[in-house]
Amino acid sequence: GSKFIEGAARQPDLVPLLRTQFFIVMGLVDAIPMIAVGIALYILFAIA
């Protein structure tokens, strides 16, 4: 988050590109634990 704001302050014309990259990275960071829980539940109930 802070690096996004720092980059936006330095290069205001790159804000759309930085914002897109920021949301992609934050979406992946948010999705990885959910994917891990889904795989764990699959292993727990489907295989065991």
TrEMBL record:
CDD domains on file: ATP-synt_Fo_c_ATPE
Annotated transmembrane regions: 22-45
Membrane topology of this protein: Multi-pass membrane protein
Keyword Transmembrane applies: yes
GO MF annotations in UniProt: lipid binding; proton transmembrane transporter activity
Keyword match Zinc: no
Main location: membrane
Origin: domain of life: Bacteria
V-ATPase proteolipid subunit C-like domain sequence ranges: 1-43
Matching Gene3D superfamilies: F1F0 ATP synthase subunit C
One of the Pfam families matching this protein, by short name: ATP-synt_C
Example GO BP: proton motive force-driven ATP synthesis
Keyword annotations of the record: ATP synthesis, Cell membrane, CF(0), Hydrogen ion transport, Ion transport, Lipid-binding, Membrane, Transmembrane, Transmembrane helix, Transport
A single Gene Ontology CC term: proton-transporting ATP synthase complex
Cross-referenced PROSITE patterns: ATPASE_C
Cell location: Cell membrane
Family membership noted in the UniProt record: Belongs to the ATPase C chain family.
NCBIfam families linked to this entry: ATP_synt_c, PRK06876.1
Protein name: ATP synthase F(0) sector subunit c
Gene name per UniProt: atpE
